[in-house]
Amino acid sequence: MADPFEVRMRFTSQLQHLNASVNSSQKAAHYALKYRDMDEDLHSCILEQLERNSMNNRANIMYFIEHLCDMAQRENHANFVRMIQKDILMVVDAVAPSDGSGAANVKVVRRVLQGLQHKGILLPDTVTEIEGCLKERDTVAEHAVLSPIDANGQRDNAQNQTTTSTKVNGVSRPDKRQIEQRIEEDRERHKRLRESIWAVGDEGDQEFERLWDDASDIGEDDYIAAEEDAMERRQALGMV
């Protein structure tokens, strides 16, 4: 039997090093399900890291939670799902605190909540209730806390040059490295989102059927245009 302390330490390390890639979330989720007999202890690790880590990492943990619940459902291990359902308000408060320090994470929370609702993990009423709380926290423009606006309405780039965390209007502001990391991770997530939008299933001829449905019926004008094109090609070849 694995040492519970070692399992906890390794899982904690995986949570601390999560990034925007799907692989990192899936790897941590696989590890948690591998030691599902310690699910309560591992769940406490998730809550603990949400309280201790940077806002960037909390956003990554939020995405990881969706992967964990999805995989737990498929493997019929309902304990992880039930614990997330029970503590979802605590999770949201940690990822997007009411003090405005997590304003950049509000969209992350909304996206994950919608995913959990779509998978049947959260009830629509629960998501609606949480959404009401998020509206009060979504008073700052996206990434405003990452790059505050000065009195002239311009981004305060001078403050971005610091390498230590500061406070703006009483709200803790990330350092330059965290800002750059968040920009890169958001770019990676948006890239994956665009790929998923354009993705077409590999079952049958779905892409062909979609293009066929989009195409209009052939009319007399199409035949005339085809004859004119054929005539132009023959003229170009010197056949006429």
Radius of gyration: 25 Å
- What number is the mean pLDDT? 80
- Strand line-up of the largest beta sheet: 1-2
Question: How many beta-strand elements?
Answer: 2
* Molecular shape: elongated
**Poorly predicted runs of 5 or more residues:** 140-164
Discrete helix count: 11
How helix-rich are the residues, as a percent range?
55-70%
Please outline the major beta sheet: 2 strands, antiparallel
State the secondary-structure class: mainly alpha
Proportion of residues in β-strands: under 5%
**Termini Cα gap:** 86 Å
* Helix-strand topology string: HHHHHHHHEEHHH
Task: Describe this structure as you would to a colleague.
This protein is mainly α. The protein is built from eleven helices and two strands. A two-stranded antiparallel sheet has the order 1-2. The termini are far apart. Residues 140-164 have low confidence and may be disordered.
Descriptive key words:
mainly alpha; about 65% helix; two-stranded antiparallel sheet; about 240 residues; single chain
List the helices and strands and how they pair.
Blueprint: H1 4-16, H2 22-34, H3 39-52, H4 55-74, H5 78-95, H6 106-118, H7 124-137, H8 157-160, E1 166-168, E2 171-173, H9 176-198, H10 206-214, H11 220-236
Antiparallel strand pairs: 1-2
Concise synopsis of the structure shown:
The protein is mainly alpha-helical and 240 residues long. It has eleven helices and two strands; from the N terminus they run ααααααααββααα. Helix content is 66%, strand content 2%.
